Amino acid sequence: MTQITLLDGGMGQELVHRAGDRPTPLWSTQVMVDHPGMVAGVHRDFAAAGATIATANTYAIHHDRLEGTALEGKFDELHGLALAEARDVGGVGRVAGAIGPLGASYRADLMPTHDEAVAKFAEVARAIGPHVDLIICETVVSLAQTRAVLEGAQAAGKPIWIAFSVSDDDGSVLRSGEPLADGVALAGAAQAVMANCSAPEVIKAALDVLATSGKPYGAYANGFESISDGFLEAKPTVDALKMRRDFTPDLYADHAMRWVDHGATIIGGCCEVSPAHIAEIASRLRAAGHTIV
Question: Please, which pLDDT band fits residue 228 given cuts at 50, 70 and 90?
């Protein structure tokens, strides 16, 4: 059968559930300071569930997100913490460095100028590049972000994967309203193309587009009811987002196996995808005769 790369699941939401702290705009980053070792524990649980890539908790560590907070000026220190906790995991084949959006997730309107964005993405890439096996540019919502993050990520000197976040109404369209196909056409520097942090029901339409790239492709969806208007405001916190009541490991694995049947060779989970969800996918993959690599 097929060799499948199994990514881990949603680090940020898993930390929210485990920490029990009041969410802040820096929830997944603040946890590394307030609860040392918790991120490593999440990594270990995803590895035990069957994930073969640990995605370091570097997604939201950008200067513009730290400005005006108690963590301002701790850019290098926070990257060091995230990378150390990702490496403190046995049984995972590779460590990926995550590069998330500038400003906030899902907000194409917050992108700075191209040159400024490239410089900011490149600074992250240089910080994490020596310590990871690959870079994943995550939750890419616009063509401008695609151009800038791929250019900046090359500063890491490591293979680059890109994950586009698509409309929850139409998987062939980026959250900016631009065609996903145009984003894929710009992804020449990426070794793999994916859809992430989108509703699982629209992923198949995204895969139809990603398949045209000629590159390995895949998906890792979220378990939110929707991306609420409250989360699109300035400095949002995750209490503006709600998990779907039907988002069980069985339901998510049903979707994931359909993606594999559709040609996806990279599968995982984003927000609200827990180790239990990843374990169910791993079990289904093995039962179907696939090899997890």
Answer: very low
- Given a cut of 60, whether residue 229 has pLDDT beyond it is no
Tokens (6 digits) for 8: 């881990």
Which strand ranges, in their side-by-side order, compose the sheet holding 53-55? Answer: 53-55, 94-99, 134-140, 160-164, 192-196, 217-220, 266-267, 3-6, 291-292
Annotated binding-site ranges for Zn(2+): 197, 270-271
Residue 200 tokens read as: 């699982």
DSSP H or E run through 267: strand 266-267
* Cα angle value 225/229/235 (rounded, 5°): 110
Q: Please give the annotated binding residues, written as ranges.
A: 197, 270-271
Count of C-beta atoms within a 10 Å radius of residue 92: 20
Digit-coded pLDDT (tens) for 170-221: 999 999 999 999 999 999 999 999 999 999 999 999 999 999 999 999 999 9
Look up the pTM and report it. 0.94
Domain boundaries, the chain: 3-292
Supply 271's token pair: 């927000």
- Residue 24's pLDDT is 75
CATH code for the structural domain at 3-292: 3.20.20.330
Cβ-contact 4, 267 below 8 angstroms: yes
